[in-house]
Design brief:
- It comes from Gemmobacter aquatilis.
- The protein is mainly alpha-helical.
- The two termini are 113 Å apart.
- Strands 1-2 form a two-stranded antiparallel ribbon.
- Helix 9 runs antiparallel to helix 10.
Length: 265
Amino acid sequence: MRLICPNCDAQYEVPEDAIPEDGRDVQCSSCGHAWFQRAPYLIAEEEEEAALFEPPLPEEEPEEAPLPEELLADLPGAESAPADAPPPRARRAVDESLLAVLREEAEREVQARSREEPRPLEMQGELGLDMAAPAVAVSPSARRLAALKAIEDEASAPISVPKGRDLLPDIEEINSTLRPSDRDNTLLDHVPVADIEAARNAFRSGFAAMVLLAVALVALYVLAPGLTQKVPALAGVLKAYVQIVDSLRMGLDGVVRKALALVQG
């Protein structure tokens, strides 16, 4: 049995028992198209039925033999009315009411056009093309002379020397820059007094804490030998602290010596 793909017309030869009586779905391996294939005997029966019910072909009617020219000439009225001449067309009768409506519309159009005022013609003025002066060609030598003359005029112009008072800066401008601006005053006015006091107290407390911390560290460094004798358990910690401070002192001393050497040259 031969299967033909309805999409790409690919042909496949398969055994007849591969298609059951009820038919089955098959797929083309070339284009992937799938269709339902019926059994061979069903296809044969449908073809026979189509052949039985196919309408018969219409019988061709025999063409009439053309009459000879002599017989056509003997027929009455053959010369007066040629066979190829088309019959005259009958003119369509126009309704009188339709003609009256068309006449009324034409009269209205004529009256409306007569009532319209004629539009004045727009006159375009002269563009002034003729009034334009012709461009004069300037030679390069004339350009150089004009440039030299302009330089000489600039050199001969008197130079205004400022007076001694003009050389000094304006005192009023300096004072205006030194005075606090109104904008700063307005900004301070909007800040609550409590916030200003809190900021000042925070700064004072922070500064005092740093001073106390520095004093405590210095006192601990100075009193480290005595504390080591009184509290032997702190000997290791105090010794390490003293070594760290000594290393920082030595590093700071080296930096200061290098700076002094650079300054003194």
